């Protein structure tokens, strides 16, 4: 009996000692301890609990732990918790509770049931720790990592696509996600002081006036330009500081109804994108339900500096690549132009001989001869070859020009019927011509080539029919247009627009559309039509713009410099047929041509019209002939580009001996054109190769019959 009591005393002392140890550990420990009875009534809380929750021991003893409920955890959460405890399973997890002051905290807890000797639950004990700051630090670090990842993703996307707009969209998406913002904008500052919106995003389904127009401009041009003005969205750049409002009452900036400022803003955080002392743009976030915290501002201010560097580097790379592409394109065109110019001299000589002798043969045999149709086919082929070489020269900007003041409205009206026959019956042709259109100084044949080629291109894009619209307008190109359209120059222009309702073109096709020999018409296309248009436009110091959407249609806008001062119209040059039949003449003509076949053709053609002809195959031979018979020679017909001496230098020497001799030059492309300073004050005639015998005879007759002196003065 005594031994049982002794054992009981020892056990009691041991239990008391252990209980004191536990109590002491609970009192000085940092972990929260809460003990309830089996009904959930609080019996004990330690000092750490009071320190974290703000509730004292007296505040909570005898009450339910429900006073800590945050209302941020669902009823299903608590149901699962109690199901675990009732089944005898220890519960571990995290949940939000509310402090006495109403603020929330996140705790990580272990809750376990304490059973009595009979196996029934007598108490519940919860041991927990406040992990709010720990979780906040983790989330803070994760947010920073997301921001860094977004910069990396944006840079990688730019490396793949070369699109700054896509970079901005990636950056904005991340910023909106981590701040729970429903509206965001990113713009860069442009050289003219305006803001160029790169990305604009909104998660709200409520329509915003002008929002779709801005998105359309972003898709079409890569940015939406808006003047810098006093408003909340512009304030971070204007004031060069972070702007934060967490309630509408804090917004003291002017209200604005422009397209980008029309969205309703309740909260806002705007961060200027700065590099050194320069502000290059702004990231703006708006309508976060909980506003923008100090952590948000700290992270995003750091992030904005990285964004500024990334966007600035991308923009610099875009400019570098654009300049390099422009240089390569220019070099490509120059190379093709040199090639075209190089072969055109010899090629035009061959065409002159082919068409010339064919024409002479046709004249000799008459229309009833069996070979007439065969010879006509040869002449037609020569004319098609002539057209081809002229297209190449036009693309290479070496086509010989005969510019005249032109009213494009009158010109379009004059060829309207031809265009209608060209496009067929299943396509309608409409015109919208500006009544106050200005004049342009251009070669009429080139304007015709532009319109014809663009209309043919539009026709081919509408196999099932549609509408082609030709429109004219006066337009001033400013710095904004120049910045968005590489190759354009500021100034006043007349715009000729050809618009169709065809299949449209992809960006890939548009990027190559003006390359020579590139065509989407596998069987019928030569790939020279639009290349020719491009060359003509550039030769006239103009610009061509392509606007196209797949499935909707395409519009080509040709900008030709406006003629500010109306010059007196010139008489068409001698390379056109002035008369249906050449008149016979008389006189002595010296023909100088290094290509023997062309020389022979010219001599034969002129002799057949009654002229006396002397021939020379080089300038040196011609000068010797001129020394002997210069007084008798009425006209010198000479090529410009020849070995040993040019035709112009040879003619100058002849003029020193006999100033009254008349001159007629011939050539195949513009780099052989006469220098206006060579024969100042004279109206020297010029003939383009290839030419027919009739063309030659007509122009020679015109030169000899003109009542002028050698210096272009009228005889009395």
What's the topology here?
Elements: H1 2-28, E1 32-37, E2 42-45, H2 47-53, H3 57-60, H4 75-86, E3 91-98, E4 104-115, E5 121-130, H5 132-161, H6 164-179, E6 183-189, E7 195-202, H7 211-221, E8 224-226, H8 235-238, E9 243-245, E10 268-275, E11 278-286, H9 294-365, H10 372-395, E12 404-406, H11 408-414, H12 416-423, E13 427-433, E14 440-442, H13 444-460, E15 466-477, H14 479-484, E16 491-500, H15 507-510, H16 529-539, E17 543-549, E18 553-561, E19 588-592, H17 596-608, E20 612-616, H18 619-629, E21 635-639, H19 647-657, E22 662-667, E23 685-688, H20 693-705
Parallel strand pairs: 13-15, 19-20, 19-21, 21-22, 22-23
Antiparallel strand pairs: 1-2, 1-5, 3-4, 4-5, 6-7, 6-11, 7-8, 9-10, 10-11, 12-14, 15-16, 16-18, 17-18
Helix pairs in contact: 5-6, 5-9, 6-9, 9-10, 9-17, 10-16, 13-16, 17-20, 18-19
Please identify which CATH superfamily of the largest domain we are dealing with.
GAF domain
Instruction: Bin the strand percentage.
Output: 15-25%
Biggest sheet architecture: 6 strands, antiparallel
CATH topology of the largest domain: Beta-Lactamase
Name the helicity range. 40-55%
Strand adjacency order, main sheet:
8-7-6-11-10-9
Number of domains: 4
Mean pLDDT: 82
CATH architecture of the largest domain: 2-Layer Sandwich
Please provide the count of β strands. 23
Radius of gyration, whole Å = 44 Å
Low-confidence stretches: 568-580, 708-716
Question: What can you see in these coordinates?
Answer:
With 716 residues, this protein is of the alpha+beta class. The chain folds into four domains: 14-130, PAS domain (Beta-Lactamase, 2-Layer Sandwich), CATH 3.30.450.20; 137-322, GAF domain (Beta-Lactamase), CATH 3.30.450; 404-561, Histidine kinase-like ATPase, C-terminal domain (Heat Shock Protein 90); 588-705, Response regulator (Rossmann fold, 3-Layer(aba) Sandwich), CATH 3.40.50.
